[in-house]
Amino acid sequence: MRGREKVMSNEITYEPQYDDIDLHLWALLQQVRHIMLRIREKDLVPYDTSEVKVTIMFLISVIGHDATPGEIARWTPHRPHAISTLLDRMEKDGLVRRVKDLKRKSMVRIEITPKGSDILLKLAGLEPIHEIMSALSGEERLQLKVLLLKLREAVCNIAKIDSPLFPPTDIH
Fold first, then answer.
1. What CA–CA distances, in Å, run from 46 to 55, 132, 143?
2. Which residue from 131, 132, 122 is spatially nearest to 54, judged by alpha carbons?
3. What is the pLDDT of residues 22-50, one digit of tens each?
4. What is the pTM of this model?
5. How many CB atoms lie within 10 A of CB 36?
6. Which one is the CATH code of 4-135: 1.10.287.1490, 1.10.10.10, 1.10.3720.10, 3.40.50.11260?
7. Which of 54-58, 108-112, 152-156 has the lowest mean pLDDT?
């Protein structure tokens, strides 16, 4: 733990260092994430859905016909049982449906319903994401992407996650 130990009347207490750049960066990442999610959640209110559900629908659209609960879980930091529970709720909300694979009877594929597709299309036209990112130049966006991918790789190594988390690294 970084900081200074301070002895006070036979007790050792921890006095944090406020000049620790790692703590500052961590706090900034948390603040930006929190505020961005709050902005996004406001956009989602009219659709009675959440950011995680929208992200899963987007992943299903990217994965395409091969979207199974297991494949969706591999593209996220979520465990398969959590994805299955989320898909149950999304199916109940009419956003996705499970379809039996005709070739492999034990396999289930996930499809986006017309209601889910409609929500994705409407959200794609909303400006806040692009407005937020417009604070960065094109070059800065690419630099940010490289840095975030590097951090993602580090946290995946620490957490022992070896899945192909979304977004893939080849999107420019």
1. 17, 21, 34
2. 122
3. 999 999 999 999 999 999 889 899 999 99
4. 0.74
5. 15
6. 1.10.10.10
7. 152-156
